[in-house]
Amino acid sequence: MDDDCSTTEAFAELKSRSLRVSDVAQIAAGTGLAVYAMWVGILQPGFRRVPLKLQVPYIPASRSQVRNVMTLLKGRKGGIVDLGSGDGRIVLEAHRHGFTPAVGYELNPWLIYLSRFNAWRSGHHRKVSYRREDLWKVDLSECKNITVFLAPSVLSLLQKKLLAELPDDALVIAGRFPFPDWTPCRTEGLGVDRAWAYNIEVQRNVTKNADNDSVTNEEEST
Fold it and tell me: Which of 52, 120, 160, 173 has its CB 3.0 to 4.6 Å from that of 125, i.e. a possible disulfide?
């Protein structure tokens, strides 16, 4: 299945799931009803200052999504960075699978507090790190394992940053939505629970070849 179809399918399933009572219950149970109410009533309107295409509503990852991400990371070692880490569950699970350091970057301060509370409750608060920082300003030059659960409009822009900064042996895992212009090396799961793995060296070579072909075509046309 190509990425366009995957994106369309994920959008459709995510939209339908968001209307079900079970998903509301999941949000309430996973984050605390008070925190979710604060998000909807106070924090979400604050996104008006952020360009519309960069707004990413908070939707906690399901157990299946987390499991699929971990499956794609199997055999990898070292540290991991989760961009837009939400309530921190991906970072926490990655730590449990041996990734260290395990770091999450999140701009929403309430989600940072929630992440730290969840880490403390699980007894791993000294082993993981959650930082309030704009993902566009994070230096990724030494990161080899990256996870992202972001909207397609953000992923299309993030591609450039990842290609510019990540080392060749880095692996990027996207959950819920695939990168629009990249071809995954592996996928895991179905529908909205699907996760996609991308080899940065392969994507970098594909981009270089495409740029070279474009230059050659322009030269031939002149």
Answer: 120
* Of 32-36, 51-55, 148-152, highest mean pLDDT: 148-152
CA dihedral (149, 150, 151, 154) positive or negative: negative
Helix axes 152-165, 200-221, angle to 10 degrees: 90
pLDDT range class, residue 59, cuts 50, 70, 90: confident
* pLDDT surpassing 70 at residue 9: no
Contact 133, 83 (CB under 8 A): no
Please tell me the predicted confidence (pLDDT) of residue 58: 76
* Proportion of the chain in helix, strand, coil states, percent, rounded to 5: 55, 15, 35
d(CA 51, CA 54): 5
Note the Cα 30 to chain centre separation in Å.
Answer: 18
Evaluated on CA atoms 72, 123, 106, 167, the torsion sign reads: negative
Distance CA 133, CA 106 (A): 6
DSSP code per residue over 50-89: S-GGG-----PPPHHHHHHHHHHTTT--S-EEEES-TTSH
Does the structure show a pLDDT above 70 at 17?
no
What's the one-letter identity of residue 142? E
Please give the sequence-ordered ranges of beta strands (E in DSSP) within 37-194, or none if there are none.
80-83, 102-105, 128-131, 145-148, 171-175, 186-188
Is-above-0.85 flag for pTM? Answer: no
